[in-house]
């Protein structure tokens, strides 16, 4: 009987209230494949027949099948039809909603099987290197000596020769931030931050009952005069900033502004917390604030954005031994310690060059994705750093961030609006995580939808019949 033996008249159970009908069909198809109801090789009903059965437009079914193909669920065979695709054991599982969540600011996934194997080999080699102690022993709060030395080596290209005694191993950048703020501030204190700032500092400040004061920014980042005015009027306890490829605006502070800010902080005796999440990405970075004023700066260098998000390790460089002792106590009180296992993985990758190779791969993939964004998005709306993997999208009137985000979500794309970052009145803008889509094709498809939507009016985009 040939191919007809595997043919089925599959009919999904969907409701139009569940969102775009084409996504509901694709989601139902994914659910039936993953549950085993539809086996690999099964031939799906012709698009027109399914459209007639569901009493919907043919183009909606066509779009649903295309979406299923994008997810790797089905394949079209010329002259034969559409078939459920065989999936390998290691194939990526698509989120049931079909959402491409560009609200997540992740490093892009690189396609280098050899490097991926090298990463896993480094993990496996820990077993032969006293690995049982990594599983069955506690370590000191600031990290083992070897891990602190690895952190110092990792930071050497940017900070120069830093004593390992000044380097603390923390459970991620957020853990480092919690420890530093716990040492430098008390409830009711004021901390200066950029007017558009990392949501993590807002969360920690709320947890510790700290007030945040917004330092004005422009296209070049934090404005030193605004920081000085707050110092003179409010006597802040610290300045938190993200000076390189800032999240969300992508601005990088110039060397001149970094010196100005350090001078102001020194004059008013304000410690600086430098969140250098993206500092390893530029090939020729501007010197960090910690290199300009090491006696003032608590420098946080996480590995999540430049090596691996699952590697919840950050290196905290403090000004001196007294600050190290206080920060170690704060780490012990809030998290006991960073995971010795993940710290050892980070150390191994740093020592054998794997971490540097991963950064190079991320840089290469980031550059490719930035080229796609530059090609597809209107230049007048986008601010981006070619070495970073997020973009700041200013919305043309009369779009609002709420309308734009909601309309994108209905198309299967998640973004984050400016209100997540703003201390005062948010601009009409959204952040796009260019690294979140799994492939470049996924990114291009998503950005085409974004660009098409920018070219429409909100009223036209929301039209229903």
Q: What characteristics describe this protein?
A:
465 residues, globular, Aspartate Aminotransferase, domain 1, alpha/beta, Arc Repressor Mutant, subunit A, Aspartate Aminotransferase, domain 2, seven-stranded mixed beta sheet
- Note the main sheet: 7 strands, mixed
Summarize model confidence as the mean pLDDT.
90
What is the CATH top level name of the largest domain?
Answer: Alpha Beta
Q: Which structural class should the secondary elements be placed in? A: alpha/beta
Describe the protein's architecture and organization.
Helix content is 43%, strand content 14%. The protein is of the alpha/beta class. It folds into three domains: 2-90, Winged helix-like DNA-binding domain superfamily/Winged helix DNA-binding domain (Arc Repressor Mutant, subunit A), CATH 1.10.10.10; 101-111 and 357-461, Aspartate Aminotransferase, domain 1, CATH 3.90.1150; 138-352, Aspartate Aminotransferase, domain 2. A hairpin with a 3-residue loop joins β1 and β2 (81-84). α6 packs across α13 (340-351). 43% of the residues are buried.
